[in-house]
Design a protein that fits this description.
The complex is a heterodimer of chains A (about 525) and B (about 350). Chain A has about 525 residues and is an alpha/beta fold. Chain A is built from 18 helices and 22 strands. In chain A, helix 4 packs across helix 5 and helix 13 crosses helix 14. The longest helix of chain B has 29 residues. The chains are: A alpha/beta (about 525), B mainly alpha (about 350). Chain B: It is found in: Cell membrane.
Chain lengths: ~525, ~350
């Protein structure tokens, strides 16, 4: 363990101290004798693969999970919370990955719900809006506190969540993957606010999968693996490679394997799918696109640039109002997901919880779903076939735990994504559309999924790969389609494509784009 | 989505265009009100004597109990739930009132007993929904059968109310200027509406009702007392149904097991026509009141017509419901696009 000179002088007493914390779930030790310290006025990153215990640690700290052993001290005093409300009262606020606010209420209400200023027992709307405006301006956000939260983009909602978190005079602010749905400019804005709060002496616990961001914002970091602390580091003193190694506990062989695919295919064959002037008003402007078997086509663009919309049109989830799609040389009328699936097109949604998996079913049931749909309801998939398939894919994709009867909702994000992927692979699609398959999952699982994509393409499948991480898109794809403002603006291919090229294209003439 | 909105210069309060905020939140209520004005206007053009104060007053007199029941229903629907038991609870209330009065209980005790029964039934259903995670539809369906069944236990026959106090309240009328008379039922209903609006908009309980309807898990993570609210709305609905039942017994001066059959559907219709989202989180009590008035006006129109059968009321209400649900879909779908 390294000492840190920048923000952790040895005489600073930790604000939060966890000692020997153990949390056990049926069959698993989610946290195993974890020690952790959070100092006032620092940004402390918590890193680790999915299932390493980051969420559990946060939940143990905020009283969502009970601890089986160990002690939590807040400013030196042992505490034990029974739920987030109590932790909040003690000055520990959490901003979750998914914005946990009510979009149907006003911004001011979302900030002050539960602590509204009252006059003669009635909520004082005027005072509430004034207080909210004050809190918003503290974090430099200038929006009308009376407006409905739902009328603002997700990024602003996230900042409102932070305003709510600091409204309680939080001494500890926990940010659980707050950046996963923000674009570069919005992240910068978030970080500006985080720095303001840090300078005010708030202790900030920051969980993120984006190493760039961790290096940008964190003063110190703690790495967890399999429920144990691997180490506590000063950010300035630890190299990326060392860090990633600490996180995944193995060398980066998997990552190396998907280093840029050297042999790029020249699409000589007939395209598998050809879209001509395909578009939908208000969704994406008409575009042309060719997808060849054995080719990975990346889709790059900022959040809201039309990435998902493009995928949904190709899958028939939204109906196009212009253009045609030719599939295998024949014109294809997509009347919805069912007909797309029937033609061998598969689509994994970016929102795997809401639009992908059935969280209450087991891994086996989820895997068989798409296959069953393809066979029709009358011909049940025999148990043995199912077991064989499940075993095969659990192994091929390294789904953990390797238990066909595990309920999907209990799996970590990365493993859920693998189950979703496996479900479509079972149906042997000709075209696989992956929308943000690596969002919110750890480095190791990311690399595995990228490798699977490469392997599938090598086997002759056409793959559309959508991701917010340009580096990933460029690395995985043979060809990159660039979108901006719901319009296809370019298509680049070849080994020489770099992230910078794509960024330049996205930025283009649009100076307003900050990234 | 680009950065500019984040760092937009502070807007002055006065410059926030009111019109841009009105549509999404108030549009359904305004639409309902417009429909009410149009139907009423159509009636007054077509029939002489329609556009009189007394016809308006009668709308309230005839529907006072429905207004009260719809207010309770609004609370439940705002949390994203549903209460199917209200019609049966109304019937049970008339039954208990009639039976206990016949047994010689004093009027105040009868009223107390009826209200307590309603609140207690609501509490039971609320606990089932919250503690045991039973679907609101199922929990209140059970409550509906239970209450209706209890009516028959008390008596299968209609029991008339002969108590002096009840008759006095029922038959008393309050003269308003312009030769318009209303009953005490109307006054009670309007008080209930005012109290409900106050609770929903100016108390933490009320705001939590909206928060639960918007996103229950978020509300819990925000540290709000969602459990209390989820149980509370059913207690309120049960209480309102019992109060509605009392108003109904003033109106009918009898208790009968088959009173108010299908009333729960009228109440739900009024709430939905009044612009409250069935998914919860959006809506106003005032909307529900206007919803009741729309239903009442349609009924009045059809009775003025004379030649039309009463089932035309149902057909018109059906069409209205469809139209309003379509309108809500449009509004909801428009919102996320920003």
């Amino acid at each position: 363990m390294l000492a840190d000179e920048r923000s952790a002088p040895s005489d600073t007493a930790p604000l939060v101290e966890l000692q020997g914390i153990t949390v056990t779930f049926p069959g698993v030790k989610a946290l195993d004798e974890v020690d952790f310290r959070l100092l006032p006025g620092e940004v402390h990153a918590l890193l680790g693969e999915n299932g390493a215990g980051k969420s559990t640690l946060i939940k143990a700290l905020t009283g969502v999970h009970a601890t089986d052993a160990g002690e939590i001290r807040l400013a030196g005093v042992p505490v034990s919370f029974h739920g987030p409300a109590q932790a909040q009262d003690a000055g520990i606020s959490t901003v979750y990955q998914e914005v946990n606010l009510c979009t149907n209420l006003s911004v001011a209400e979302n900030i002050l719900l539960g602590r509204e200023p009252r006059r003669f027992g009635a909520i004082d709307g005027r005072a509430m809006r004034a207080r909210a405006a004050e809190l918003l301006s503290r974090i430099g956000l200038h929006i009308d506190p009376g407006s409905a939260l739902g009328s603002h983009p997700i990024a602003v909602q996230q900042l409102v969540a932070i305003a709510r978190a600091v409204a309680v005079d939080a001494r500890v602010l926990i940010l659980d993957e707050p950046t996963s749905s923000l674009d570069a400019g919005e992240v910068a804005e978030l970080f500006r606010i985080v720095r303001v709060l840090r300078d005010e002496g708030v202790a900030i616990l920051f969980v993120s999968h984006f190493l760039d961001q961790v290096y940008e914002i964190a003063d110190r970091l703690t790495v967890l693996r399999n429920g144990k602390v691997v180490g506590e580091y000063a950010t300035a003193k630890v190299g990326r490679l060392e860090l990633v190694r600490a996180m995944i506990g193995r060398d980066l062989t998997v990552l190396d394997e998907v280093e840029r695919r050297s042999e790029r295919r020249v699409p000589s064959e007939e395209p598998l799918l050809r879209a001509e002037n395909l578009g939908r008003a208000g969704s994406i402007a008409p575009f042309d696109l060719e997808l060849h078997p054995g080719e990975v086509v990346g889709v790059a663009g900022l959040l809201g640039s039309g990435r998902t919309e493009l995928a949904r049109l190709l899958f028939g989830a939204d109906r196009a109002d212009s253009g045609h799609v030719y599939f295998d040389g024949k014109i294809l009328k997509l009347r919805g997901p069912r007909s797309a699936i029937a033609h061998g097109i598969a689509f994994t949604s970016e929102d795997r919880k809401a639009e992908g998996l059935v969280a209450d079913l087991t891994v086996r049931d989820n895997l068989i779903l798409a296959m069953q749909a393809a066979r029709g309801w009358a011909r049940q998939v025999p148990r043995r076939t199912a077991d064989e398939l499940v075993a095969k894919y659990v192994e091929a994709l390294d789904i953990r735990p390797a238990d066909a009867d595990a309920v999907v909702g209990t799996l970590s994000g990365g493993n859920q994504q693998k189950v979703l992927l496996a479900r479509w692979l079972v149906t042997r699609p000709k075209l696989l559309i992956l929308d943000e398959p690596t969002r919110g999952i750890d480095v190791g699982a990311k690399a595995q999924i990228q490798k699977v994509v490469a392997d599938l393409a090598a086997e002759g499948m056409a793959v559309v790969f959508i991701s917010a991480e340009l580096e990933e898109v460029v690395r995985v794809s043979d060809r990159v389609v660039v979108l901006r403002d719901r319009r296809k603006i370019a298509e680049v291919s070849g080994t020489e494509v770099t992230v910078d090229d794509v960024v330049a294209l996205i930025a283009g003439e649009a100076e307003k784009v900050p990234s | 989505m680009t950065a500019p909105p984040l760092v937009a210069p502070p807007r002055e309060k006065t410059r926030v265009p009111l019109t841009s905020r009105v549509p999404s939140r108030f549009l359904p209520v305004i639409a309902t009100f417009v429909v009410f004005v149009l139907t009423f206007g159509a009636g007054s053009i077509r029939y002489e004597g329609f556009a009189t104060g007394q016809v308006v007053a009668n709308l309230f007199i005839d529907n006072a109990f429905l207004i009260v029941v719809a207010v309770g229903m609004t609370f439940v629907i705002l949390t994203g739930g549903i209460d199917l038991s209200v019609g049966s609870v109304v019937a049970l209330s008339t039954m208990i009132a009639a039976a206990t009065l016949r047994a010689g209980w004093p009027a105040w005790l009868v009223i107390l007993a009826v209200l307590a029964t309603g609140a207690l039934l609501g509490l039971g259903m609320g606990v089932m929904v919250h503690r045991f995670g039973v679907q609101p539809f199922i929990a209140t369906l059970a409550g509906m059968f239970l209450a209706r069944g209890l009516c028959f236990v008390i008596s299968v026959e209609s029991v008339s109310i002969k108590d002096g106090t009840f008759r006095d309240i029922a038959l008393a009328s309050i003269e308003l200027p312009g030769e318009v008379a209303i009953t005490y039922g109307v006054v009670i209903a309007l008080i209930v509406v005012a109290v409900a609006a106050y609770v929903l908009h100016l108390t933490r309980f009320g705001r939590t009702v909206y928060a639960v309807g918007g996103s229950e898990s978020s509300a819990t993570l925000m540290g709000l007392r969602t459990g209390r609210v989820k149980v509370g709305v059913y207690v309120i609905s049960g209480f309102c149904s019992a109060l509605g039942g009392l108003l109904f017994s003033f109106y009918m001066l009898s208790g009968y097991s088959l009173h108010a059959v299908g009333l729960e559907l009228d109440a739900i219709a009024a709430v939905v026509v009044g612009g409250t989202l069935l998914a919860g989180g959006v809506g106003y009590v005032v909307g529900s009141v206007v919803g009741v008035l729309v239903l009442g006006t349609v009924q009045t129109l059809i009775s003025f017509e004379g030649t039309l059968s009463s089932w035309w009321t149902k057909i018109v209400i059906g069409v209205l419901l469809l139209a309003f649900i379509a309108l809500q879909r449009l509004i909801v779908r428009r919102q996320p696009v920003k």
